[in-house]
Design a protein that fits this description.
Layout lengths: L3 E6 L2 H10 L3 E5 L14 H13 L3 E6 L8 H13 L4 E4 L2 H10 L5 E3 L8 H10 L3 E3 L6 H10 L3 E8 L11 H6 L16 E2 L12 E3 L4 H7 L3 E4 L6 H17 L4 H10 L5 E2 L1 H4 L12 H17 L7 E9 L6 E6 L4 E5 L4 E2 L7 H8 L7 E10 L3 E2 L2 H19 L27 E5 L14 E5 L4 H10 L3 E4 L8 H13 L4 E4 L2 H9 L3 E4 L8 H9 L2 E5 L6 H5 L7 E7 L2 E5 L14 E6 L4 E7 L2 E5 L4 E2 L4 H4 L4 E5 L5 H13 L18
Parallel strand pairs: 1-2, 1-10, 2-3, 3-4, 4-5, 5-6, 6-7, 7-10, 9-11, 12-16, 18-19, 18-30, 19-20, 20-21, 21-22, 22-23, 23-24, 24-30
Antiparallel strand pairs: 7-9, 8-26, 12-13, 13-14, 15-17, 24-29, 25-28, 26-27, 27-28
Helix pairs in contact: 1-2, 1-9, 4-18, 5-17, 9-10, 9-12, 10-12, 13-14
Length: about 675
């Protein structure tokens, strides 16, 4: 099976550019629920036209419904999926596990692809996606060549890899910077890209979070050999010429083994940020990956556009065709056309006449029938059956060819719909009323030393990196002792598994998990699962899904308001993050240092306003923490409507921890600088 070239399409013109340049499939967004809300996207009419256009030309269409969906929005997302099924869409890309659950019920015949927003970056994560019902998983961009190969060769489902396009500083699905700093959620397709603004480390450039565009187009044959199913191009916000250049480069790399230098220059010219990087794939991470859009990049784009427009000015003959022409005395002339997918069309014309001079010959017929320009077809084989001494005007042959091809093209765009039955729902929203008693207290500490004497809580977690002695002491002190599984475990899956086994032996039997990679590992080792913020649980269907997966509790999505969160009780115990200097980004490329071995893991970034954001690194990944902690100590009314309250301590001293705990006991606001986060308004 050949490697699929999957192209972005932000609008109808980009669809044509992708198809004409040689894409095997395109992915596009609906008017809602797309992770690129600012792209042109498609409504019902333009989506229908795009799907027919692609299917006629043998190109697959994937619909991106890849955002987090709130409870009240699920019906709208299902309606978009129903339209996709009516059009016999080839796949739907999904991030929200609640929506995935509903789609499995509604349309078992619909192919589901796990979005890169699900942050899958290990074989364990891929295995969980397969168990959840996905047919394909889009891996995180941060993986190296060796890590991709290891996953692809053992994956139970298809694997898709990004090969070209913009790079976010954060692991997709684990970024809250746009939401917390401006109320626009990257997890709902409305990222304001604050990372492209100046953020300066102590000794680095002023744009330490702005990465160059990614490009591993030269490695497509290598990816194919690994078992990767699809090579994905990022860029639904980009113009059609960009799509044409990227697809053409991929086509050349895969088919010819190399990209012509002038084409690569045009691709760089149409859009780049100081050139491209392959840092994640090759393992050459560091400050060399940083880049911004400069005046020279804009000038290069102006030169490249006219050249690229010529690449897609005409139809690309990509669909092989078979003809059978019958010209027989006393019968209408007849031309049958069929393709290799067994679509067939027949056209009839006038009866032939006895030739007065020169009879119709095979060479003349072949010449006319091969004139398929302006269509996606090319003639692979012809069966010509001519009676003796007959004549048929060439204009009649041309008319037969046009009629047959028009009908065949129409048939190729008509497919049986995928059956869709409106699914049942996981109960009605719970009444937003205060519960009796205080919410159960779930607390994550950065170290054992932070925990005050006499402190009590229903659940206490330490990072999985805590020492054996700390974990043993924790389990001796708290019946509900657990570990926080790291969100990032690039290339460290087995090391994390061994640490989990050690934590279990120390008596820590609970696991706070933020990614599906961690869920799989903790589940396999027998831990009681507690969902963390990274799972982005935002609707009742997602809660039902994780309840059935064996979770004991779940923290609700950080981007829900308290009021929205309070409507999600009643399925399993749910909680809200009420305190913590929460991570705004999870990164594999450290913005503050080039050499982890020479770094103590404590860095910082300063934005253009002088605000300082701590950067904390461990296990080959880093987190950018918010400049101030979230604190809802005086929001007892809103918190009392939930089952749990999460407190997330990172670097506070024991005295600072005691002060925060006192604030919550007394229900008073802090005197230190803090934020309410998204508890009041939520996000767009």
């Amino acid at each position: 099976m050949s490697l699929e070239i999957l192209a972005p399409a932000g609008g109808p013109e980009a669809v044509k550019a992708a198809v004409r340049a040689g894409a095997d499939a395109v992915y596009l967004g609906y008017s809602s629920f797309s992770a690129r809300a600012s792209a042109t996207n498609f409504d019902e009419q333009t989506l229908t036209e795009a799907v027919h256009y692609c299917h006629q030309r043998g190109v697959k269409v994937h619909l991106a419904l890849n955002t987090i969906v709130r409870d009240e929005e699920l019906d709208g997302a299902l309606e978009a999926a129903r339209l996709a099924c009516d059009l016999s869409i080839d796949a739907v890309i999904v991030q929200d596990m609640g929506l995935c659950r509903l789609l499995k019920q509604a349309a078992p015949g619909l192919s589901l692809h796990a979005s890169t927003q699900l942050s899958v970056h290990t074989l364990a994560g891929v295995q969980w996606m397969a168990k959840a019902g996905f047919d394909r998983v889009v891996l995180a961009r941060e993986l190296s060549r060796e890590e991709i190969a290891s996953i692809a060769r053992k994956s139970p489902i298809e694997v898709e890899v990004f090969v070209h396009g913009a790079l976010c500083a954060s692991v997709s699905g684990q970024c809250y910077m746009s939401a917390f700093l401006g109320g626009r959620s990257g997890n709902r397709g409305r990222c304001a890209q604050p990372c492209r603004l100046p953020f300066q480390a102590s000794d680095r450039c002023r744009n330490a979070l702005s990465l160059k565009d990614y490009s591993i187009i030269d490695h497509l044959r290598e990816l194919h050999a690994m078992g990767v199913a699809s090579a994905k191009i990022e860029g639904r916000m980009k113009r059609p010429e960009y799509v044409a250049a990227a697809v053409s480069a991929c086509r050349a790399s895969l088919d010819e083994g190399k990209v012509p230098p002038d084409l690569m220059e045009h691709l760089k010219g149409v859009f780049s940020r100081s050139g491209f990087t392959d840092g994640y794939y090759t393992g050459r991470r560091g400050r060399n990956m940083v880049g911004i859009r400069q005046k020279e990049d804009v000038t290069a784009a102006q030169r490249a556009l006219p050249v690229l427009q010529k690449l897609v000015a005409a139809e690309r003959p990509a669909v092989p065709l078979h003809f059978r022409l019958t010209v027989k005395e006393g019968h209408p002339s007849c031309l049958t056309a069929w393709d290799e997918e067994q679509y067939q069309a027949t056209a009839e014309g006038p009866q032939p006449q006895l030739a007065q001079s020169r009879a119709l010959d095979r060479q003349s017929c072949e010449k006319q029938l091969k004139k398929t320009g302006g269509t996606p077809f090319f003639v692979r084989e012809m069966d010509i059956r001519l009676g003796e001494g007959l004549n048929l005007p060439l204009s009649s042959l041309n008319a037969l060819r046009r009629q047959a091809l028009e009908r065949l093209l129409q048939l190729r765009g008509e497919r049986n719909p995928i059956p869709f039955v409106w699914p049942g729902r996981a109960g009605k929203p719970a009444p937003s009323e205060p519960k009796k008693g205080s919410p159960a207290l779930y607390v994550r500490f950065g170290s054992l030393d932070q925990i005050p004497e006499g402190f009590e809580a229903q659940m206490v977690f330490l990072p999985l990196t805590a020492s054996k002695g700390e974990l043993t002491a924790l389990s001796a002190r708290f019946p509900g002792a657990g570990v926080e599984v790291p969100r990032a475990m690039f290339g460290r899956e087995e090391a994390v598994r061994r640490r989990l086994q050690e934590a279990w032996r120390c008596g820590c039997c609970h696991a706070l998990v933020h990614t599906w990679d961690g869920v799989r590992l903790a589940c396999e080792e027998g831990f009681t699962l507690h969902g963390g913020f990274g799972l982005a649980t935002a609707n009742r269907e997602a809660l039902q899904e994780i309840k059935e997966a064996g979770f004991a509790s779940a923290a609700l999505w950080l981007e829900l308001s308290l009021q929205q969160a309070s409507r999600l009780t009643g399925i399993l115990p749910v909680g809200y993050y009420a305190y913590g200097r929460l991570p705004l980004m999870l990164m594999r490329n450290c913005p503050a240092a080039d050499n982890c071995k020479k770094c103590d893991g404590r860095q910082s970034l300063t934005d253009r306003k002088g605000t300082v954001f701590p950067v904390r690194c461990a296990g080959g990944a880093g987190e950018v923490l918010n400049s101030v902690p979230l604190c809802l100590a005086d929001r007892t009314d809103g918190l009392s409507r939930l089952d749990l309250m999460h407190l997330h301590f990172t670097e506070e001293t024991r005295e600072e921890v005691e002060h925060v705990l006192r604030l919550f006991r007394e229900g008073i606001p802090p005197s230190f600088s803090f934020t309410r986060g998204l508890s009041q308004k939520g996000v767009l």
